[in-house]
Design a protein that fits this description.
The chain is mainly α. It has one domain: Winged helix-like DNA-binding domain superfamily/Winged helix DNA-binding domain (Arc Repressor Mutant, subunit A, Orthogonal Bundle). It is built from six helices and three strands. The protein has a three-stranded antiparallel β-sheet. Strand 2 and strand 3 form a beta hairpin. Helix 2 runs antiparallel to helix 4. The termini are far apart. The N terminus and C terminus are likely disordered.
Length: 118
């Protein structure tokens, strides 16, 4: 497929100046979405949705990727038939310096089992 063939499949993303802190924080407050972002940050590469081993259904996984995209945390683009996911690190670091690194470091420190209230 050529770029023009995939242009009709372009997914909507907020422009950099439209990314809001409250939407980013909401997107990253979910453990599955945080896991996706942690993996993208660790790999520092675009990954297909199928490269993530999430313990949820395909429809739930699709929802998580959509929330991350619509909040401006990730960028999704089609490359042929594959939907590629990339972390919008430059945009997030430019808008909220140090936020992503702080959140990722905190997530790494707490990477054990999630325990409500503890």
């Amino acid at each position: 497929m050529t770029d023009t063939a995939t242009a009709g499949r372009a997914l909507p993303h907020p422009a950099r100046e439209q990314i809001r802190l409250e939407f980013v924080l909401h997107a990253l407050s979910d453990p599955m979405r945080l896991q996706i972002v942690r993996e993208l940050a660790a790999r520092d590469a675009e990954l297909t949705c199928s490269q993530f081993d999430l313990p949820v259904t395909k429809s739930t996984s699709t929802h998580h990727f959509r929330v991350l995209r619509e909040s401006g945390v990730i960028r999704q683009v089609y490359r042929g038939t594959a939907k590629m996911n990339g972390l919008r690190r430059d945009d997030l670091d430019g808008l909220f310096p140090g936020l992503l690194d702080s959140l990722l470091a905190a997530a790494d420190r707490q990477s054990g089992p999630l325990r409500p209230g503890g």
